[in-house]
């Protein structure tokens, strides 16, 4: 008889429920939220398991990929749809949610979401990291501008490549501010060097990607992307 598995994932542990097609429970338990322990917990029913369900969460992509590689048929379900189904159950516990997800699998009452490939996840993480990196660099520049403005020193509108030289020129007029401003400026300059390196690496990735190369052929796209990369601001 076909079996259906529901996984309710939290940061440390995952509640597991295995049910038959008629809803009869086969096994309920918990395991660490690690691929190896989850696979070990359900591998005894490997040949009988028809579907394994997991709710979309920060760990779902990682666990989903590992279980698929191990040969399990997986479904990652949309969070809001799952919550509507699970909220109708009398008890709201991890164990109850795992049972509810297993029931969703056997009834076909779920809305699957696309799970990105490992390569796509790594690229997305890199792009998010770059965005955070640029945000922090711009925040430091704004802090330097604000601190200098209090003392009547105004960098004004200036290209980012000349920002450090302009600040140094202003500090020569007020050397007593060096102790406060120079550490921020040094951090900002180091971040700018690292950003340039990261941008070059991402450009190399883009040149090898067929979709990116196709987008580059659209009039205006290349200039816009270069502007965003240079300024750190989304157009």
From TrEMBL:
Top-level taxon: Bacteria
Parts forming coiled coils: none
Transposase IS110-like N-terminal domain: residues covered: 5-149
MF-aspect GO terms: DNA binding; transposase activity
InterPro entries assigned to the protein according to its UniProt record, in alphabetical order: Transp_IS110-like_N (IPR002525), Transpos_IS110 (IPR047650)
A Pfam cross-reference name: DEDD_Tnp_IS110
Gene Ontology terms: biological process: DNA transposition
PANTHER family hit by this protein: PUTATIVE TRANSPOSASE FOR IS117-RELATED, TRANSPOSASE FOR INSERTION SEQUENCE ELEMENT IS1111A
Protein name listed in UniProt: Transposase IS110-like N-terminal domain-containing protein
Source organism phylogeny: Bacteria, Pseudomonadati, Pseudomonadota, Alphaproteobacteria, Hyphomicrobiales
């Amino acid at each position: 008889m076909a079996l259906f598995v529901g996984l309710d994932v939290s940061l440390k542990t995952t509640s597991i429920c295995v049910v038959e097609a008629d809803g009869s429970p086969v096994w309920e338990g918990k395991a660490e939220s690690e691929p190896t322990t989850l696979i070990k917990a359900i591998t005894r029913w490997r040949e009988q398991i028809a579907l394994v369900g997991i709710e979309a969460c920060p760990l779902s992509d990682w666990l989903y990929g590992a279980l698929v590689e191990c040969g399990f048929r997986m479904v990652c379900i949309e969070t809001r749809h799952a919550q509507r189904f699970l909220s109708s159950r009398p008890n709201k516990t991890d164990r109850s949610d795992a049972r509810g997800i297993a029931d969703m699998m056997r009834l076909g009452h779920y809305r699957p979401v696309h799970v990105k490939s490992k390569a796509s996840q790594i690229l997305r993480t890199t792009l998010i990291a770059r965005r955070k990196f640029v945000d922090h660099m711009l925040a430091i520049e704004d802090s330097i501008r604000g601190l200098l403005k209090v003392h009547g020193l105004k960098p004004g509108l200036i290209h980012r490549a000349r920002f450090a030289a302009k600040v140094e020129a202003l500090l020569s007029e007020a050397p007593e501010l060096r102790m406060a401003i120079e550490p921020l400026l040094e951090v900002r300059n180091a971040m700018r060097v690292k950003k340039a390196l990261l941008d070059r690496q991402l450009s190399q990735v883009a040149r090898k990607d067929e979709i990116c190369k196709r987008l580059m052929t659209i009039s205006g796209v290349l200039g816009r992307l270069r502007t965003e990369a240079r300024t750190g601001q989304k157009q």
